[in-house]
Structures are given as C-alpha cells and as structure tokens.
Amino acid sequence: MLSVDLHTHTNCSDGQLTPDQLLAEASKNGVQLFSITDHDTLAAYRQLSMSPPAEMKLLVGIELSCTWRRMTIHMIGLNLDANAASMQEAESKQGQARSQRFEMILQRLTKVGLYIDTERLIELGGSCPGRPHIARYLHETGQVKSETQAFDKYLGQGKIGDVKECWPDVSQAIEWVRQAGGVAVLAHPMKYRLTRTKLIELCTDFKEEGGVGIEIISGQQNPTQTKTVSDIAQKLGLLGSVGSDFHKPGQPWAVVGKVASLPENIEPIWSLFE
Ligand code: AMP
Ligand code: MN
Ligand code: MN
Ligand code: MN
Known about the structure:
Elements: E1 4-5, H1 19-28, E2 33-36, H2 43-47, E3 57-68, E4 71-78, H3 85-111, H4 118-125, H5 131-140, H6 147-155, H7 170-179, E5 183-186, H8 196-208, E6 213-218, H9 223-236, E7 239-243
C-alpha cells in the first residue's frame, strides 16, 4: 500500500520543524507520496536544501485560507508550479491579508483587556503570523492556561479574535491553484462543524467552482467521520486525499505519514499525478 501524506506544516507557517527536518521525518517514516502544505506560503520549497529520497515523490502544495458564506475554510492546492505567476499573487495577497488580520486580532484582544506586547508577537509570528502564535503568546504570558484555552476563549470560531473578513472567497483560491497547474482539495471537512446538509452545500459549491478533491482522512479521525466524508465524495464525484495535518512532534493524533488508507471505493487524487 502506497504511503501518502499530503498535508503537513513547517516553521515557515505555524509548524515547528524546518523544511529539511520535516522532509527527513517523512523519509524516516517511509512516506512515498508527500506534500508540505504551509498556510498561505510556499516558502518551505525555497528553503529546502535537500532533494527528496529516490523512493519519495514530493508534490508542491499549499494550504490556502478562504471564505465560504462568511466562514473561514481551508483548501489544499496540490501539484503546483511553485514559480507560477498566480502563486506569486496568492502568496503576496495572502501575506498582506495575514498581517492585516493579525493587527486586527491584536487590537480586538487589547480592547477586551488582554496585555499585548506587539513587538514580541511580531517576532513570534515571523513571516506567516497567525492565531497559533497569539495562542502561544497568551500562554507564555500566563493570560490563559493553555494554547487550547486561548482558542476556546479568544481565537476560535465565533470568538472575539476570529477575524475573517481578510480572506478571499473560495473561487479566488481555486483559481490561483488552477492557474498554477494544480488541483484544489477541500481540507479537513469535518473540522468546520457543519451539519451534513451544510457540508454537502459547501462541497457542492466547491466542486462547482472547480474543486477536484476532498480530504477523506485528516489526522486520526474516527471511522464514522471517514464514512460521512466518503459518502459525500462519492455522491459528488470528488477525488479523495489524505493528510496528517502534522504541525509538531509529540502530538499522537498527527504524526507525519501516519494516516489511514483511503477506503477502496474512493478514487485517490494521486491517480491524477501518476
Ligand atoms: P490561522 O491560520 O491564523 O487562522 O490559524 C489556524 C491554525 O490554528 C490551524 O491551522 C491550527 O494549526 C491552529 N488551530 C486552530 N484551532 C485550534 C485549536 N482549537 N487549538 C489549537 N490550535 C488550533
Ligand atoms: Mn496550522
Ligand atoms: Mn487547516
Ligand atoms: Mn493544516
């Protein structure tokens, strides 16, 4: 069985390992088809100093933030031409949106009485500032008990720090990916906590806009969730992808390359790349 992991992060976004360290980890774990999909940036591909081993195929990928019906959703672009003009535009626009959003979130948090050291936060956020950096800061300064609590109280969906007006809509994100020769895959569909009806509406719109695949497996998920997503993929004719959504070592629910296989009735997205 082919070992596949098409959703992982490095310290070029909110992950912990460098691109070289992540590639080494994937290689050690025997991954044969791999992608680094940092949030809104392809920087990892510019930083890699080594080639993948002979037994591994590395697809250029990205995880783009976008909006659907005023909700933030994530889309994976796979098999991209890293030098395409559309990706340069995507990286530039998403980078601006991230910085602007970061500032807006910090302003909102200051308003509700949290202490914010902007300099420290800018340092933590680096070139891809996001909510995880703010969560780390709030924890580090003792303003929350854990990073999870930071999301639960301030940063998660519907909370004061959930600023979403900066992202482009799904069709724009899909267009960038298509113009770079890639395919668009809806990321972790079960994470949006939608009803089944709403999830089908999202997937239908996504397909109509030019989306090709959906993550059937994201990290360690339960079989009921896999079945729900598989049924939708089959109903709508979306191809299946799998990914750990690895961010850092020591999280048993997201280990590089440790991802369940696609159910047999689902056509793999990688059938397009062979
Ligand atoms: P952003 O890109 O700024 O919207 O931040 C989204 C990232 O925050 C996700 O990719 C996860 O890595 C992380 N994240 C989202 N929700 C949570 C949560 N409840 N607890 C911890 N991390 C989270
Ligand atoms: Mn992340
Ligand atoms: Mn995501
Ligand atoms: Mn991710």
